[in-house]
Design brief:
The complex is a heterodimer of chains A (about 425) and B (about 230). Chain A is an alpha+beta fold. Chain A is built from 15 helices and 13 strands. In chain A, the strands form two sheets. Chain A has a six-stranded mixed barrel. In chain A, strands 9-10 form a two-stranded antiparallel ribbon. The two termini of chain A are about 40 Å apart. The chains are: A alpha+beta (about 425), B alpha/beta (about 230). The complex binds adenosine-5'-triphosphate (ATP) and magnesium ion.
Chain lengths: ~425, ~230
Amino acid sequence: MQTNTIDSSDGKRARSRLEGARYPTWFAITEGVRSALSSIWAHSFRSFLTTLGIVIGVASVIGMVSIIQGLSFAISEQLQGLGSNSITVESFTPVRERLQRRFASLTQKDLDLISYRIDGIESITPIMYLRGQSQVRYGAQTTVAQVLGTTYSFQEVGQYFSLYGRFLSDSDNRTRRRVAVIAEQVRDELALPENPVGEFIQINGEWLKIIGLPEPKGEIFGQSLDNRVMIPYSTMTSMQGNQRSPDIQIQLTIADLNNMDTIVELITRLLRSAHNLGPDDEDDFRIQTADQLRSTFSSILNNVTVVMAGIVGISLLVGGIGIMNIMLVSVTERTREIGICKAIGAKRHHILLQFLLEALVLCLLGGLVGVIIGYGIGAVAASLIPGFPPAHTPLWAVTLALGFSAVVGVVFGILPAAKAANLDPIASLRYE
Amino acid sequence: MALIELTSVSKHYEMGQHLIKAVDNIDLSIEPNEYMVFIGSSGSGKSTIMNIIGCLDTPTHGRYVLNGRNVNGLDQNELADIRNQEIGFIFQSFNLLPRATALKNVMQPLIYRGIGLADRRAEAERVLERVGLADRGDHLPNQLSGGQCQRVAIARALVTNPSILLADEPTGNLDSQTTVEIMALFDELHDEGQTIIVVTHEPDIAAHSERVARLRDGRIVEDYANEHNR
Ligand SMILES: Nc1ncnc2c1ncn2[C@@H]1O[C@H](COP(=O)(O)OP(=O)(O)OP(=O)(O)O)[C@@H](O)[C@H]1O
Ligand SMILES: [Mg+2]
């Protein structure tokens, strides 16, 4: 008979097919993920709304971290150029003195003291800044640049490598030669030739001959480091004329990095006694090392990152509570379905896993979408702010964001899932 | 040995002062390949006894042995296993998963048995063909007629090769023509060796069976063989 299709051979084959899975846990997880995905897809709009909190939270953390990390990346690259064995000493006027209009200063005498009395210094150089920015003229062109007076040692301290010509020499300083090393931006703005060596520029009415141009340094915080003119220190003091002890900055490099702390300590003591400071007086100078600068910057950035992460953590928490709410509603709504599944043989763990995985997959998908959006936000924002370094999305942030989303999914999915798993089959089948 | 052995089984509900005896002190023995019908008026306890036999519900008193196994005192997970291995349940309101296609609905019980996707699909397709719905596998329940829905539900009940097919008013929501078709399907299954227990109001349906038990107020008041069907 046509209708009697279940003949004995067919039936036997069927029996053998109906044996259980070889890896029950793996089977349960893959089936759970499958049903979670199809349920998320079936309710795609609601799923999207459910996970919106996670998407926004993750997108903002990834965006922020990308921007901050990009910044920190750029800064540490800039500071690398300073050389980690360099020390900067500059004058510092405490607020009280500033109010009394008594300004601290560092002088050539301080520099001599340091270079004669302290061992282990590789090179030392004064830097004198011409107040503010100065007009530089070449032919009919003028531009504003930062003019600083220094010595040949600055080449090493500031890591300047000549592209054309040479750097300042010792003899330039001894003979107060009227020469200048100009950076790239100055050359371009003055429309000087590609190789400007031998041309003459005018600063504050003084004619100076260009002797060199170093490799460009780029910019930091959108401020160019190539807007500089460097002239011999002695030339600048003579250009300043009657000023007796101009305020200078002292830059030095040390031979052995391990001596850094000792040398900083020695300089402090030396300068305090030279400036006749009493035990209660504040230092009237500041000593900064490249390392210190770097760690200050990175600790500021890390603090910002931690605060951001905290705020975002709260927003993820709120997102998680949203997920829990909607999952609870969804369990109630699907009570009958749960009853049907139980009637045809679903055990507690089947139902539990299904809802838990649904929450987990939902959160992970939200996290993934958030990472992509956040990456985009970071890249776009960094490129929109002029002079801002490109965003950098670190892997740890992505991992952390996804991990946190997963944790939120599990933590806030467990309650609805347990509620679903514990439903009584008869009662849920009757549920309307 | 009897497939189903109920000894002094009762299901009592306490509602405040009242004690509702939905099923009261029933003794019943059902052999393999029997085709049995419970009839009785509304509220006589037909659904309750079916739920107990189907291990969806547990009796408050008495002993229930199914296929040689004592069902009393099993926990929810063990009962779920029995429902999955031994029982095929068919409901008046079909109780299909609304967002799953006919094929997926039929595949669903096999998930709980730990059967892989390819085998599940092959089995479900085979059984869907058996109930005459081979071409409707990718339809959602709301794209099927009532009779087709009930066929899907029957396929879902059969796909696990259950010892017993339980049907609680399977034609209660169907018109007379569809009822005839579904009952013919039951007859075929019975001919193939399936044990079937059906709950109904309608004497016409009871006439298909070999054995009829009439319930009143939770008790079996009549239990007779339909000689002409033997
Ligand atoms: N959870 C419950 N709590 C209290 N009383 C219940 C409960 N479930 C069923 N009953 C009672 O048990 C009795 C039997 O119910 P049952 O559902 O078995 O009747 P039935 O014969 O299936 O009726 P119908 O033909 O209308 O489906 C009814 O009086 C009902 O009110
Ligand atoms: Mg009923």
